[in-house]
Design goal:
The chain has six helices and two strands. A two-stranded antiparallel ribbon has the order 1-2. Helix 4 runs antiparallel to helix 5 and helix 4 packs antiparallel against helix 6. The protein is globular, with a radius of gyration of 22 Å.
Length: 185
């Protein structure tokens, strides 16, 4: 009897140790609640409003490449999930690059927290995409020649693109994410 209990405890201990073994990432649970995205959109709008009210030390030092925000629904729906995800991830990467440049260009310290928060939120959106089992994006060496992009030269335009991209293509991708679809049977 004691021998059986000892083996059972040993088996239980091994199972617990396997679950808690360091270095093994636990799978992320899908984040399908759009309130998370709505929060990021609200903060992006706050940054845009702060930038519009800025009078000094709030310019972009050079023009930057940003994603197109216009969505042609016929074209979007013809793309497969991987193509849609790559388009969104490329756009997020472009926005992150552009906001990082803006952060170094802006001398108005009141705007730094808005810009830093926007960059953090883009990283969080990438984590949300990973939680939905969307493949990791490998950015190109440079933004030159990327399709579906354009250039902006003002900080206000950049932040407007940021808001519109989140409201458009990012929202569409999250709404259609396979990991978020309810099993209707």
């Amino acid at each position: 009897m004691l021998q059986k209990t000892g083996r059972g405890l040993l088996a239980l201990l091994l199972i617990v140790l396997e679950w808690t073994r360091p270095g093994l990432p636990s799978p992320l649970r899908p984040i399908c609640d759009l309130r998370v995205l709505n929060h990021f959109i609200k903060e992006a709008r706050d940054a845009e409003v702060a930038m519009k009210s800025c009078r000094e030390g709030c310019s972009l030092s050079e023009s930057v490449t940003v994603p197109q925000t216009r969505v042609d629904f016929d074209v979007w729906e013809k793309k497969n999930a991987l193509e849609q995800a790559q388009e969104v991830q490329c756009g997020l990467w472009l926005l992150q690059q552009a906001l990082s440049l803006l952060r170094t260009s802006v001398t108005n310290t009141a705007l730094h927290s808005h810009i830093d928060n926007s960059i953090r939120n883009l990283l969080s959106i990438n984590a949300v995409l990973r939680s939905l089992n969307i493949q990791e994006y490998n950015p190109p060496a440079s933004a030159a020649g990327l399709e579906g992009t354009w250039r902006v030269s003002s900080a206000t335009d950049l932040l407007q693109v940021h808001v519109n991209f989140l409201r458009g293509k990012v929202r569409l991708l999250l709404l259609d994410a396979q990991a978020c679809q309810q099993d209707v049977s």
